[in-house]
Amino acid sequence: MKKFVSLFAVLILIAAVWSCRNETPDVRIIPQPVMLSIDPQMVNFPLNKPIYTSSNDSMLLVAAGYLGTKLGIHGYQIGVPNPGKCIYLKMVDPAPGVNPESYTLVTDRKGIMIQANSAKGVFYGIQTLLQLLPPEVYGDVGITRKSYVKVPKVSIQDQPRYAWRGMHLDVGRHFYSVEFIKKYIDMLAMHKMNVFHWHLTEDQGWRIEIKKYPRLTEIGSLRKNADGTTYGGFYTQEQVKEVVAYAASRFIDVMPEIEMPGHSVAALAAYPELSCTGGPFEVRSAWGVSEDVYCAGKESTYKFVQDVLSEVIALFPFKYLHIGGDECPKTRWAKCPDCQRRMKAGGMKNEMELQSYFIRRMETFLISKNRSLVGWDEILEGGLAPEATVMSWRGEAGGIEAARQGHDVIMSPTDYCYFDFYQGDRRYEPKAIGGFLNLEKVYSYEPTPAELTAAEGKHVLGAQGNVWTEYISTEKQVEYMALPRMSAMAEVVWSPRELRDYEKFLFRMERQYERFDAMRINYRVPTPVTTADSFIFTDTLSLDFYTAAQNAEILYTVDGSDPQVSGKVYSEPIVLKANATIKAVSRMKSGRTSAMVEISAEKQEMLTGMQLSAGEIKGIDYDLYSGLFKSTIDMDSQKSVSRGVMTSFGLPEKVPSKPFGLIMRGYIKIEKPGVYRFYLKSDDGSTLTIGSREVINHDGEHAPTEKTGETALGKGWHMYELRYFDAGGAKSLELNWSGMGIAKEPVPAEKLASLTNAIVMMAH
Predict the structure, then answer these.
(1) How far is CA 554 from the centre of its chain?
(2) How far apart are the first and last CA of the chain?
(3) What is the pLDDT of residue 285?
(4) Which of 67, 103, 332, 593 is a Cys-bridge partner for 125, taking CB atoms 3.0 to 4.6 Å apart?
(5) Residues 6+ apart with CB under 8 A from 578
(6) How far is CA 475 from CA 12, 178, 182, 237, 602, in A?
(7) Is the pLDDT higher at 320 or at 21?
(8) How far is it, in rounded angstroms, from Cα 61 to Cα 65?
(9) pLDDT band at 12 (very low <50, low <70, confident <90, very high)
(10) Alpha-carbon distance 381 to 326, whole Å?
(11) What angle is formed at CA 560 by the lines to CA 527 and CA 595, rounded to 5 degrees?
């Protein structure tokens, strides 16, 4: 009888462990799989069973070991498992037309099976499996001290949209430890990214040991700070091998970037004879572009870079090697006898063709070493090397041109892929290089330009996010700038375009943030957001908040105090009847908080409108000023060089090619009294004044960004003044308005009157 009871108990235990529970699984996978079927059941999965693999393939066993560490399962067995008792990693023979990175994942009462035709595909299935488990699986020790874990019952068939799914990290401007580089690689792995672009040399530091040229690290890896101290560091070849091996264990290829012919001052500081002038040089401590570059006329330069690349190739097995090729001023070449002699001997018309000659020689050398050259889109200038791959960063034009020429392309335009740009209002964010790129904009990116034909589009290998580090001095700040934008980029390059939905992505990100917490990642917590950073009202104001982190709560105050100390939890619109300074933060379940935002709310009297004579002249008066201005008020001391009348807000048809200023004046008509919002977008500074009130101050040099402001306007005509200056480079100016039933739109021409001959008849 005792034996019967014991056997019965064992059967009950097995049934409990492997039973399916009628629960609603909370499945939130990033990037979104191609096909996902979820049953309303959970499986209790035991953690005391070995992992089975279908073969002793070395990389399949690497994948098994990786999963075992996460689950606290030690050991694996080769061969077909007993039904219903384990995880089975099955690798099958490749089939024609099947994506080598695809996988199938099934979880049910029979067990868990991941099947693919490559170990890499199995690894991606493992990444999806981990996201079906509690976030603690991403902790330092994985899931431990548990006999089983609940797993959703799912069936998934998945494959990436693009072959190139990359993330870049610049270690030239600031240097990071080997341990952090490994952590960065782990971040890529969890997102199913497959290329780590390691930017190893710069004007500000040479970061890789080259044994034949020891001064590259003895001198080139160190720069002087303003206070007299030195900053620097480099990776030994053994450390590089360690990183490459670690990345391989995560099925990630490492592409090194060795900059040439520009961005090379650190190398020239060590070996000044490689320059056009002979130096001397110091490793640059300032950011920006240097006119001192490798001499393209000296044969010794080519011997040097080929020697360097030979050692680099020995360390990095990846097919691709990046040689930079960007931002190379030709000033020194134009005056260098050696460069001019080489140009004459080669029949080159200009220094652009000399750069092309340099790049082509590098490509010929790399091909001889069974490697493929990658360069930034400047390598198109002067003629593209025959087999080069172009990384398009200055917008998409370079990528489009290269694809049309039959070259492979990796898309990485600044507007969507530069993670050193601000993620939110720069008043609340850590200092960054400039620009603006929030999570939603990254997610909206489409790597294959619509301008390409289907055949040309096949040359788009994929896309990658770039983390340049001029203003990122710490490892924690790298994490802050990279995440969660890396999650958005991962879905852009993996998931089918038709499956991408930003609101659903934000819902799935709730769980992703918890995974980041388990990994101790200093990710950016999205700040509370409302429709603007300032509000005007005449009676009462109802203020709504939301945050892109949907599982975060918002803490706020209305008296200007710190919301983390005395804040209330936001649950409904905030109603204000007097002036207020609202401060707010988002707080995650883990306790992590966002940067604090501040919003002003001002109760205003309406500005009194005026009546103009019936014969008012439609349009906008403008005055143009010539000169380099730093602020819109600088034009007050200058005389205009020309004037005229426009019909709408923007730039006149003819503006100087050199820096200039612009002042526009006139009247704007208000039909319905109330609060109106104006949207002023410019590159560079701009201001808007209506009546006696400054509505928007967007002054100073900056990239093309939009700023808004509100004012209460009574019925009638109101005098305004809009100022703008261009400090060089891009130039743009836009003004829109909204309010009182008007959606955001340009101010209609019939609502504008010129100051010329306008006569104020009476006030309302």
Answers:
(1) 25
(2) 102
(3) 96
(4) 103
(5) 603
(6) 51, 11, 12, 22, 40
(7) 320
(8) 6
(9) very low
(10) 10
(11) 20
Whole-number Å distance between alpha carbons of 104 and 339: 57
Which of 168, 172, 173 is closest to 184 using CA atoms? 168
Decide: helix, strand or coil at residue 331: helix
**Quick check: 709 and 678 in contact, CB under 8 A?**
yes
Phi, psi dihedral angles at 705 (to 5 degrees): -135, 160
pTM over 0.85: yes
Among all chains, which residue has been given the structure tokens 């979880």? 107
Q: What is the pLDDT of residue 21?
A: 54
Residue 197 tokens, joined:
């672009």
Pairwise CA distance, residues 526 & 548, whole Å: 6
Q: Please, where are the H alpha helices in 230-383?
A: 237-249, 265-270, 299-315, 331-335, 337-345, 351-368
3-state helix, strand, coil in the chain (%, to 5): 30, 30, 40
pLDDT in tens, 13-36: 333 444 455 667 899 999 999 999
Dig out the tokens for 629 from the structure: 């201005």
Q: Tell me how far apart the alpha carbons of residues 302 and 311 are, in angstroms, rounded to a whole number.
A: 14
Of 594, 592, 596, 572, the residue nearest 583 (C-alpha): 596
Contacts for 526 with CB less than 8 Å, ≥ 6 apart = 424, 439, 484, 547, 548, 549, 552, 586, 594
Nearest of 722, 718, 709 to residue 751 by alpha carbon: 718
The C-alpha angle 407, 243, 328, rounded to 5 degrees, equals 45
How do strand 205-206 and strand 111-116 relate by DSSP bridges? unpaired
**What number is the average pLDDT over the span 133-146?**
82
Kindly report the average pLDDT of the chain as a whole number.
92
Please give the pLDDT value at position 13.
Answer: 39
**pLDDT per residue over 467-495, tens digit each?**
999 999 999 999 999 999 999 999 999 99
Three-state DSSP state, 187: helix
- Which structural domains are found in the chain, ordered by start? 2-158 (3.30.379.10), 164-518 (3.20.20.80), 534-599 (2.60.40), 610-763 (2.60.120.1560)
Reading the block at residue 205, the tokens are: 């530091």
Q: Please name the amino acid found at residue 239.
A: Q
Give the ranges where 641-689 is alpha helix by DSSP (H): none
> What is the length of the chain?
764
Q: Tokens in use for 266?
A: 């650190």
Q: Report how far residue 168's alpha carbon sits from residue 381's, in angstroms, rounded to the nearest whole number.
A: 23
Instruction: Report the alpha-carbon angle 451-452-458, nearest 5.
Output: 155
Q: What is the residue whose two structure tokens read 């590159």?
A: 683
Please report which residue ranges of 19-132 form alpha helices under DSSP H.
58-71, 119-131
CA dihedral 56, 57, 63, 65 (to 10 degrees): 30
- Cβ(487)–Cβ(189) below 8 Å: no
**Geometric angle at alpha carbon 104, from 98 and 109, rounded to 5°:** 155
pLDDT surpasses 60 at 556:
yes
Beta strands 642-646; 620-626: pairing state: antiparallel
Nearest 5°: phi and psi at 107?
Answer: -125, 125
Distance CA 670, CA 178 (A): 62
- Cα(414)–Cα(434) distance, integer angstroms: 11
Residue (of 151, 55, 145) closest to 110 by Cα position: 151
Which token pair is 517? 């917490």
pLDDT at residue number 746:
96
